[in-house]
Amino acid sequence: MKRNLFLLVLFMLTCFSCDDDGPYEEYLVARPVLMDAITFKAEAIAIAEPVPIVNSGKIYAYKDYIFINDVDLGFHVVDNQNPAAPKSIAFIKLEGNYDISVKDDKLFADSYGDLVIFDISDINNIQLMSRMENAIYNNDVWLANLDFPQADIYDYSKIDHNRDIVVGWEVKREMRPVSEYEAQFRNMEFGDALFNTSSDGVASQPSVGQGGSMARFKIVGEYLYVVDYSNIIIFDISDLEEPKVLEDVQVAWDIETIFNQGEVLFIGGRQGMYIYDIKNPAKPKFISEFRHGTACDPVVVAGNYAYVTLKGGNFCGNTESGLYVVDVSNLQNPELKVIYPMFGPNGLGIKDDLLFVCDGSDGLKVFDKSNTPNLVQVNHFENIEAYDVIPLKNSLLMIGEGTLRQYEYLSGDIRLLSTFDLN
């Protein structure tokens, strides 16, 4: 009798779970952690003395200074007038920050969905100029930061769009309708309303700094291009003190990085590389795309070849890690030439005939690319963490796990010049 009663209750529970929402399953549900916007803006920005780095991110070089992102917290300012002995001089607290770009002493940075502008003409007296709210994206739907959690469903139901700032995430396992998951997956797949919100041109722009291949910011001429998770956001910065937001361009659901060669933008994403013409810089025009398996995907270009690192695992995807060499001599039809296996690559850069690849915990790898697509490895700096790299005119910058390393160029190789621990 008890067994029959148990089966009856189980049957009733099953029926209740098959209501108008359809069947239920267990999913990982992510909800944003919120802060009141007034409180946030009062606490989010400060200019302070140097502090130890917490989690080093991307690097950016401008004049004799290096700016090192402290993921989600701000950026450290390093005086590099003597590359053999760099020195920390300031920390700019800027919550929600991952990227910067500089032109004519005006520094543009992201802070969650806002574009923040600083005057760095006096590096010892950096001044906040303005903050353009939600100029890059509506912060409540921003998914491309490094702390973005892996989940099946993202629940934004409790956000007050006029008041709330997303400052983190909490993830729990819950029973939710299968239909809810499927609907959100379709939105993510096609990028609709839920989330729709030297060789890189530096040599011809001496007043513009230089970022690495992991960058989401890129200044070309009088325009600042920013990639959010699905769009190119375009700013007219001809008036550096009052940038204008232009109409954005939708690219794909999962774009991450931006690089330019002349009047062509190369956008790296988890599904592929996207190529855009910027002959009309205010209106990038789609040319073509190169598709690959799902993985994190920065890209650099020199001449007729694009070099793309694909990193699998974690939230990046299941594609096997590697260095892809793609022939882009015909921009309408990019063609994969060869794949070189990698351990867990991140950023990469080019200086003359040398290609530098940050291969995560497997260190920094140096290749001779003079016979591309046939690459020859000429050096391997092991037992270090390599994340982002910038080839400057006279030296190479590389960051990983809070340590800035600089290398001097040799004939067909490099040699360590200095090591600077920011911890």
Describe this entry's structure for a reader.
The chain has a domain of 170 residues. 9% of the residues lie in helices and 47% in strands. Strands 2-6-5-4-3-13 form a six-stranded antiparallel beta sheet. Strands 14, 15, 16, 17 and 18 form a five-stranded antiparallel beta sheet that branches. It is globular and about 65 Å long. It holds the Pfam family LVIVD. This is LVIVD repeat-containing protein. It comes from Maribacter chungangensis.
In short:
This protein is mostly beta strands and 423 residues long.
Features:
423 residues; 9% helix; disordered N terminus; 5-stranded antiparallel sheet; mainly beta; 47% strand; 34 strands; 3 helices
Write the layout of secondary structure elements.
Layout: H1 2-17, E1 24-36, H2 37-43, E2 45-48, E3 56-62, E4 65-70, E5 74-79, E6 87-94, E7 100-103, E8 106-111, E9 114-119, E10 127-132, E11 153-154, E12 164-177, H3 178-190, E13 210-211, E14 217-220, E15 223-227, E16 231-236, E17 244-245, E18 249-250, E19 255-261, E20 264-269, E21 272-277, E22 285-291, E23 299-302, E24 305-310, E25 322-327, E26 335-341, E27 348-351, E28 354-358, E29 364-368, E30 376-381, E31 388-391, E32 395-400, E33 403-410, E34 413-421
Parallel strand pairs: 1-11
Antiparallel strand pairs: 1-12, 2-6, 3-4, 3-13, 4-5, 5-6, 7-8, 8-9, 9-10, 14-15, 15-16, 16-17, 16-18, 19-20, 20-21, 21-22, 23-24, 24-25, 25-26, 27-28, 28-29, 29-30, 31-32, 32-33, 33-34
